[in-house]
Amino acid sequence: MNSDFTAALRALFPADDLYFDDERREPYARDESDQGRFPPEVVALARSAAQVSAIFKLCNLHKVPVTPCGARSGKSGGSLPIRGGVALSLEKMDRIKAIQKEDLVVVVEPGVVLEKLQQAVEAQGLFYPPDPNSQDWCTLGGNIAENAGGPRALKYGVTRDYVLGLEWVTPTGEVMRVGKRTIKGVAGYDLVGLFVGSEGTLGVATEITLQLLPLPRAVKTALLIFPSTLKGAEGVSAILAAGLLPRTLELLDETAVRAVENSGYAFPPGTGAVIIAEVDGLDPEALMNELVRLGEVGTAAGAHEVLVAQDESQRSRIWEARRKVSPSLRKLTRFKVSDDIVVPRSQIPTMVQRTREIGDRLGLMVATYGHAGDGNLHANVLYNSLDDLPRVHEAVEAIVRTAVELGGTITGEHGVGLAKKGLLAFEQPPELIALQRSIQKLFDPNGIMNPGKIFPDA
Ligand SMILES: Cc1cc2nc3c(=O)[nH]c(=O)nc-3n(C[C@H](O)[C@H](O)[C@H](O)COP(=O)(O)OP(=O)(O)OC[C@H]3O[C@@H](n4cnc5c(N)ncnc54)[C@H](O)[C@@H]3O)c2cc1C
Question: Which of 199, 195, 167 is nearest to 180 (CA)?
Answer without folding.
Answer: 167
